[in-house]
């Protein structure tokens, strides 16, 4: 919720600047460069059973060169995310193309409006990044060919402007100077997103109503019958990632844009050939082709008994509540398998995962815990419940989506509940679902120490905190203050 960002959804450079400036992180710990490692690449993470710690091997690049070093930690937070390892399309001849080939996830700084002006461009894909890219390029390029293999449900969010909406100078001024207005606006957006939960149940009244509503909106925006037919999905809303896209629907109808409902079969030195055999000359190919969503980490994470998380998740990625993994002690992952990626907003759940990690840290510190990892049987039961739950939702429908394994049909990504539901589920950790070992294996109660609390040893501290007005029943306080308990004239 940054007060000076220029677009809804933000831009990668703007977001990076916010983090670098650190003005939205009040804790001085994170501002201190000594507590940060920048320009680093994680080589591997290795669990030390005897020490009860993780060893993290890191490579850092600087102007003076590269160095490899190791650090240890008691708790490893795996926050690499899921949509970060972009995937080039498997298209014959792509390596032969002599023009520029760009992936939307790694947009080069030197390819901006001035460079693409008057070019002929091909955009491959119809996902969220394609929907965001086309409206930005369309007014400036000579021509764009868009290759759409899968239809899209366009929804309305943020006054129907969606991601990429440019805030006016007046709006930005308001957000900078009126925190109440900023919070109210952000809350409205979050309520809109979280309000979609009932839509995700197959054949539900909310699903049917949403189809009519968004179908009518698409018909209102897209006047070209061929485009409307090709872009209107036959699958349920939410089966694929739902996308705000009013600017996209406008852009595809401009004279310099052609939409082709066919896959790209081959790329030559200067052209794109689609599945219908049509060849079109282009200067640049934009690949809006998504990410590796296997959940497998890009570096070794070796847990107990030599278990490699890459191998453990090779066929089926499973976790405990999208948070922790058997055989990976003292390990919490953000946006792991079976997490609320499409169940509403991710902002609240991400914050609650951070809270969960803090509770872990406090418990480990207070109780001298050496290792804590979820039980395999409880993890298996949770995933079995999830797969059964998914059957009644739109995610089990037949569509190409990163939420599911498109070969087996198994849904790997989605939690069985709304975003708000997830937050409430993990608010109080179920430590009974974990295997726990202690620093003192002979006496797990050693953390009780000499029986003193901090208050016992602090002069002037309140050592009777259980008696104060704040925790007394308000109704009882009201009775006392009203004098209703005072003795009558007879002393009774």
UniProtKB/TrEMBL annotation:
Gene3D superfamilies: FAD/NAD(P)-binding domain. SUPFAM superfamilies: FAD/NAD(P)-binding domain. InterPro entries: FAD-bind_Monooxygenase_sf, FAD/NAD-bd_sf. Belongs to the FAD-binding monooxygenase family. This is Uncharacterized protein. It comes from Monilinia fructicola.
